[in-house]
Amino acid sequence: MELSIEQEPFGTAPNGQSLSLYTLRNRSGMVVKITNYGGIITELHVPDKHGNLADVTFGFNEAAPYFTDEVPYFGALIGRYGNRIAGGRFQLDGQTVQLEVNNGPNHLHGGSLGFHKQVWHAVPLVTDLTIGLKLTLTSPDGDHGYPGTLEVTVTYELNDANELLVKYHATTDKATPVNLTQHAYFNLAGRGSILDHELVINADRYTPIDANSIPLGPLASVEGTPFDFRTPRTIGSAIDTVDEQLKNGLGYDHNFVLNKPESKVLSLAAILRDPGSGRVLELYTQEPGVQFYSGNFLDGTLFGKGWRYGHREALCLEPQHYPDSPNKPEYPNTILRPGETYSTRSLYRFTVQP
145: helix, coil or strand? Predict the structure, then answer.
């Protein structure tokens, strides 16, 4: 078995552009399928402790469902700004910037036609050690209200150690906020509840939110709360606790402030384990935060790959800068300026334990 990449048609986008699906395979049997529509990971097959492969991410076998507004960002690249900006409004160099409001009173994930709804230019990448896909996109000045023309490159790279590296790169000709991420929904069992998955998040603090899921500002300690994942605990162990923050998120839908040895270093953010299959996902990132979302809004109405996607049957671990950072100067900076380069990496490593 060799590293390989195959390209096949994947329908037509709403704007008439032809879409492709790229299948990446490594020598260990791992398979990743990615479409140039939204840079979406549609399938991700990894072995369990017996060597049996299963698809551990939510998605669809055809393109059309991804065009609808009902699909909650399954597997997509998110931009220009992952997560929420309060009121879709912020001050930048003395000017008020107003973005599209597409999530109640807020701006979410770059807008209704953000990067997850765009057709990216795709080029396969092959080396002796990796197989990959390079995706590029130009976001024009004024896109959803964002200032500046943003040139974006995202590269997926798969190696034989069952590691998927995602590299992000962007430049701009005007100051603009940038916060890119990947929005895969994971279920390491393949299907069923994720409440018995064990999770570790390397974070002493998190950002509490208001009823509209906007950070209140000050960071809070996870100590003694349902948000303490510093040692392994099942997702279901405290998710139904009477807690104001869990009420505001309808479960977990919060940014965790990662314990970093230094800024921008690639370090371990989270470990997810399914005891039944033995599959383990380790997430490494250069980002200062990770959004843990416990699939609270899944309700069984979406059907793909032979089953319905039910409540809390998948979770997201989205590497990111903090939500609403353009309105909170005390948070790590998300403003990219001309002459600067936005560059960050996240690594998804799949292993097994007995």
Answer: helix
Residue 116: helix, strand or coil by DSSP?
helix
How would DSSP label each residue in 74-88?
Answer: TTEEE-SB-SEEGGG
Separation of alpha carbons 183 and 112, rounded Å? 15
Average confidence (pLDDT) per 10 residues, the chain, 354 residues: 94 97 97 98 98 98 96 97 98 98 97 98 96 98 98 98 98 98 98 98 98 97 98 98 97 98 94 98 98 97 95 98 98 98 98 94
For CA atoms 68, 72, 76, 79, the dihedral sign is positive
3-state DSSP of 245-275: HHHHHCCCEEEEEECCCCCCCCEEEEEEECC
Q: Are strands 130-139 and 198-201 parallel, antiparallel or unpaired?
A: unpaired
Residue 10: predicted pLDDT: 98
The residues that bridge with 344 in the sheet, in sequence order, are: 168
Q: Dig out the tokens for 223 from the structure.
A: 């100590």
Model pLDDT, residue 1:
76
pLDDT of residue 354: 85
**DSSP string over 210-242:** -TTS-B-SS-EE-TTSTT--SS-EEGGGSTTS-
Helix (H) or strand (E) holding 244: helix 244-249
Burial of 335 from C-beta contacts in 10 A (0-12 / 13-18 / 19+): middle
User: 145: which strand partners?
Assistant: none
Do the beta carbons of residue 77 and residue 38 sit within 8 Å? Answer: yes
Cβ(114)–Cβ(102) under 8 Å?
no
First vs last C-alpha separation in the chain: 26
- Return the residue matching tokens 């998190």: 206
Catalytic residues: 183, 318
Rounded-to-integer distance, Cα 285 and Cα 258, Å: 10
Longest CA span, the chain: 59
Write down the residue that tokens 């490159």 correspond to.
153
Quick count: other Cβ atoms within 10 Å of Cβ 83? 27
State the residue for tokens 């590269």: 155
